[in-house]
């Protein structure tokens, strides 16, 4: 049995990551706070008090081959593999998907687009970032729209990719060659990364290429009685490949000016045998071929001017193209053209998003009396073009094409232009014992949809839309004793409506008035160009205790979210459309659905994290999180992840080798924390809430610096071979016999379990 572990916990300023190099620190008993604080300071775009920055060394030490593994030690943050179309995006304190902003080198990733989730024909992700290209991964908790922009309601994930200088000596000509190979038993993935960096004169260059080949993430079970259908206990077979190439060239023109160009090319494919959705006579076979391509090109200019207006100017010009496609091929035993069976049909759905962006960011450090100021400000313009296509092809039993139908678009082809300006100042007072920060940002969005033959607007509600959204953030940190500090922050975040939110498919139904024979046109689904941005108000208080040998952090938060975009059922009355009954005339009415700003949610919780350097060889770390969410009608927010904690103990007797044991415990999800009340008062709970009954998992991993150039890392995960389920995976699974919609029975839910005992290993060479 194989497993993707599910540790949810620490890697913040107090992270106990193993060092990336063989050399020991000058004082092995001193916590590595200087590096963490320096990394945090370099995240100049964020003044959030609750930021976790993971460096490339941290990711290597944790043997993180995926985003799920990278964030396992950050309390209140999770990400889960959902099967055919990959993960469900980051979940920060109960908010997920597009409500968490994701940027890479300042560029936002794509919007998610999905069609009829129950059929599982297509879900366009936001883009794939390879973990081996990252210099750092910053997780921001709480509203931080000033740095991350739209989507940073409950938080943001900020990726920064590696630069040539990260591999080279500070000065002089130099060359670096690196190689890493690894294997993960959780999904039978083999990977390899080649890295080359060089400095010759003023030219610094770099290439990082990664290849991954794997299969489905396995469940606890490796056998199944039912090979197909709702009772299949093992996951559907998947063959996956990932290729990623990152290239950069930086010209150090002089001490004050740097000009750089970059290119990134990512290709990901999944070939899926959808055995769990096969049933007779409808689907005799069902296979999927999915691809997710992302290309990025950019030019960057940095000027270290140190003039009266700014110390540094960084200007960027980028283009990013994200192309997601899902092709589902079905061997059907019914509904065939001409009546003869079997026959083939295919659903070919795709979305393409092109993002162009130009930005300029400035920094200025100055003093006014006893106050030290760190000012950042800037402006940006971007345009996102969103397109969607769907083609339904059917063959007859003889193998000839019977029909090719271009289905209506899920969303119209739309251009979204956005520009923003921002300003933030951080002030240090009383010998830096008090730090105050305040900032504001203003965004404007202009949506331009195109209505054509493949997106017919029968309701007449699709039109150009413009709206603006301000956001702000204030914070303070007071070090009342040398080792003790209190901090607080309040922020207003926002999420602009996505194209799918703003322009959902529209449709109508025509009825005939029995009294006069006149047609009555009723709306079924309607777009809503009057949507407002979703808003959040995040309030958080925290305490930090930090010495050379120990660190402890505690925070409590309360987040309120307004204007959540949801589909609402409304009533339409037709003027003049009356019918006569024995009791008199009755107005013709009919229900329709429309996206509205109907949702309101409050989330509150507490997070604890810490570490202790017990001796030169022994250290320990702890992280825990608890949160709860409530909707406007009193129902719980189902996306809240159950409370969890992790305790890690590390033994490192020398810089040559180390070993870590980590125990993760999650509490059960109960039905009274996961129910939905319908408008008629009917209460429903997820079918398999009982499966998320809590768990305790033990992982054991370590590394050995064989030589200064060679490093070996290995680990055994779910060491006790525990069967368990994650709430994030089972909460959307339906129980029943309808294979077409992906339902499962009591045996079939087994394929959503986490893997059993599994191993992982990597070997790395650096010269």
What report would you give on this structure?
- With 767 residues, the protein is mostly beta strands.
- The chain is built from six helices and 36 strands.
- The strands form six sheets. The chain has a 22-stranded antiparallel beta barrel. Strands 1-8-9-4-5 form a five-stranded mixed β-sheet.
- A hairpin with a 2-residue loop joins strand 11 and strand 12.
- The longest helix has 10 residues, at 33-42.
- The protein is globular, with a radius of gyration of 27 Å.
- It starts with 32 loop residues before the first helix and ends with a strand.
- The relative contact order is 0.14.
- Mean pLDDT is 87; it is low at 1-44.
Query: What structural class do the secondary elements suggest?
Result: mainly beta
Give the low-pLDDT segments.
1-44
Give the N-terminus to C-terminus distance in angstroms.
36 Å
Mean pLDDT: 87
Largest sheet: 22 strands, antiparallel, barrel
In quaternary terms, these chains amount to single chain
The number of helical runs is 6
- What is the beta-strand fraction? over 45%
Q: State the shape.
A: globular
The portion of residues assigned to helices is under 10%
| Number of DSSP strand runs | 36
What radius of gyration results from the CA coordinates?
27 Å
